[in-house]
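Quick one: structure tokens for this chain, please?
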Amino acid sequence: MRYPVRKIIRDTRVSLDFNQEETPLLENCGAGNLALDDIIRSKVEMATRHVVQQLDNLLLAPGTPIRTTLAWPGGTPGMGKAVMPLPFDCMRLLCVQLSDWHRPARIIMEDDPEYLWQHTPFLGVGGNPARPVAVICQRPTGWVAELFSSTAGRKVVIEKAQYYPMPRITEDDSIHIPSMAYDDVVRQLASLTAETLGYNTEKQSK
């Protein structure tokens, strides 16, 4: 769901102002209204990313479709490993399934020990159409998903692939936040703003 930044700023100010255990922060911080709004605005994207990164994929679906062309390093289209470039604004790959796979791939990162299994010569150990695996890897040209693996030949295509974009404030001065995570984003934003203003929340809570 898209939320106007002005609403997020207003809700964050309320969160900062109504601290029931301490003197309201805004009375002590010495920041003017305009300066405070600028501080909050500067941290909206950071707070949103922090919260979204902790969410389960089910809470982020449906994602944005990926439309791209597969590369086949082995030289034969539709055989072996495929490489799918990820969009420049991809924060998380939510799902990917090729047309000869029985189900969507299990998604891991390149530092996962299971990545090494994908390069074994023993059949059945690495990913295959029955148990596909997608590995997120960083290349000099950007992030890609290595897809293990296919056997159906030239007819293999991307059946579905979705990702969650990096949260950014758009030209209409709004940002996408999963509705169930909105309150968490406001709390995270209030915490980041308080720290910037020199308000030690850990110290104050003791």
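DSSP finds eight helices and nine strands in the chain.
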